[in-house]
Amino acid sequence: MEKPETKMMSKKSTILVIDDEETMRDACQQVLSKNGYDTETSADGADGLRKVRELTPDLVLVDLKMPGISGMEVLEKIGKIDSTIISIVITGYATIESAVEAMKRGAYDFLPKPFTPDELRIIIKRGLERRKLALESISLRQEKERIEKNFISMVSHEMRRPLIDVQEYLEVVLRGITGQLAPQQKEMLEKAGGQINTLLVLIKDWLDMSRIEAGTILRNLEPLDLSQILNKMVDLLRGKIKRKKITLEVNIPPHLPLIKGEKLSIERVFTNLIHNAIDYNREEGKILVKAKEGGEYVIIEVSDTGIGIPKKDVAFIFGEFFRVKNRKTQHIAGSGLGLSIVKKVVEAHGGSIEVRSEEGKGSTFTVFLPKFTPFREDSLTGLTGTNKGSPG
Q1: How many CB atoms lie within 10 A of CB 191?
Q2: pTM
Q3: Most buried of the four, 183, 295, 332, 366, by CB within 10 Å?
Q4: Who wins on pLDDT, 201 or 115?
């Protein structure tokens, strides 16, 4: 599909006339050419669709009654090739039913035969104005998205550095290097440090989300050993698990099948899931991290004995900025992006994630990642690909 901004720069609009009547094609071409339009013609639907793909015209006049591919089918296929192309039906068999059906198939307007040159000019002008507005709308939306992405990235980077500096200054003061602190002073500074850490997590989540939306998380792909990654993530969080007096059980085979992925993104998936299992767990609760091979997938489960997810919230748990809000979660800091990032990263790697949860008893998050073999490069679907889903 031609980029809207490129087409908008063109001075002449291109119009394609698809009609099996030679006299109608010639008459339309003469009228439109005199008005400064680049005009092409086709005698049947198949040739017309070929020219639509080659030329990407601004507007197409389509006769409904043609041999071979019908005008209705042509309308539908034009919309699939480029939804911004304006289609106008021209026919000598106009009925209310055919007009309604044509509109359903994507036609912008309906011009019954016979029609005058002025009627043709008016409807063409109106159709091209609609096309121009559609292209301008797409261009503005693309520009808005670009500005938003750049803004998030710029603000995040600009905010991160000074926050890290402040965090380091607070650490120096809290260690007593600049002098002893009163208990109340120490408590206030620790709370300030906690808030700064929350902001840093939010900024990291923003940056991760912008990378995902920009489609850059699959640029550095390599074969990955999930056994190593999972054990590394568990070891990094053992201290936090111990402080909350949580029992940790790890059941990870030493040699899982390889997957192909972006290492930092995959690590982030399991860091987020284990962090959640800690934060939403009860004191002296239990966390189980286990992995196994299942068909074409490596299956990883992270379970906890925590507060669980209310049944009404389970369907929304992977949405952006969604957080379960109740008395038990109000003290837990977070951006509401963590699980959304997890799901997007897993699906970008051709996998899927499921959750089972019971309020008051805990949650289990199950990740399915396709096994990697050198002959299955297509296992990665990317952000715009089709999610293969979990087995079974």
Answers
A1: 10
A2: 0.52
A3: 366
A4: 115
